[in-house]
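Annex B. Sample input.
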Amino acid sequence: MPDRTILVTALHGAGWHPAAWRADPAVARDTTRLAHWRRVVVEQDRAGIDAVTLEDAFTAGPLDADGDLDTRTVVGRLDALLVASAVAPATRSVGLVPTVSVTHTEPFHVATGLQTLDHVSAGRAGWRIQVSPTTREAALFGRRSGGDPATLAAEAREVAEVVSRLWDSWDDDAIIRDVATGRFIDRDRIHDARFVGEHVSVHGASIVPRSPQGRPPVFALAHDDDAARLAVDTADVVLVTPGTSGPSGAVGGGGGVGAVRGVGAVGGVGLEARGALARVRHAEQAAGSATVRPVLADLAVLLGSSLAEAEDELAALDAASGSPYSGASDAAVLATTATGLVDRIADLRAIGYAGVRLRPLRTPADSTAIARQLVPALVTAGLRADPPSRPTVDLRTRLGIAPAVSRYAVPAQGVSS
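Annex B, continued. Sample output.
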């Protein structure tokens, strides 16, 4: 586990709360403007956030319980992978992790798109793997249904394997630029990523040279046992959605945490938080994996200058949307202060979490609060290093993940004297 807290911000439309756009109606227009996302991501970058994830789906917006577009929230979004590639040149150190579905997307396009992002960001690309189970998304591709969970998971495993093979298909030194022989590449250093599966198949190599990280780190959400097994099979970083602790949701001191979901507290954190982490570790053991993956807790947050202010603002958003967001969110919903959230993060770190992925309920209001209020508070608490003191490194290194060694790499031979 990294010796410091990993901090990731999850960016989604006008914010994760369906009524977030009502807090600032101008944001509803900005979500389809690249300049908006550049401003938001650059602020995270300057604050020293480790990575931002960019949500995406094939539908124009979130769906309601009936599978139709939820018109309470902002409809219309930009492609996450393209946004990440576009904002990369304006950033210096933040990891860029777009959500890219494996259900209706060709593995070749996934692989090359993410390789390109890794090149333009100089080694800061990641991939949040996601399946697309809804009938509405399937219909966009001429399919009648989204598929059963087991089939979707099997397809996801195959796509992840193909993408990994394509990423490895070029050796680091495949480009030789040999003027004497007129060869730009050494064909012996480019490999066939041949794979034939039940759902996908590929033949040949990537058309993009091996990127700075070799294989950008893969993130996956593990909200139940099946998802945990899929995450262990496909991902380098696992995201989980533990509940809040205590009947009142209060955690630690410093102003407390106003929480919407509550479960029994054990040692300062919820039983569900311990269980979510244990689920991933059990899946690793069952798979025979020697790798202990960083596990991040997903928390949906609204930050205020006081606990009362935060709770009032969340109540106003819930009233505007017609129902409490806690009933729809898979993650704990916390209305809190920066100091209160630091206490919550410290408790999660104490039981083995590598860090958190924070879902700002309002963007940019809460993403700005994360950058300007939470990060300094974490530094003061000793949970983060001061951003100016931290070197710029690739995303794998920043997350504490070992370098990616190509499956085609030939071990170096010793030199005898």
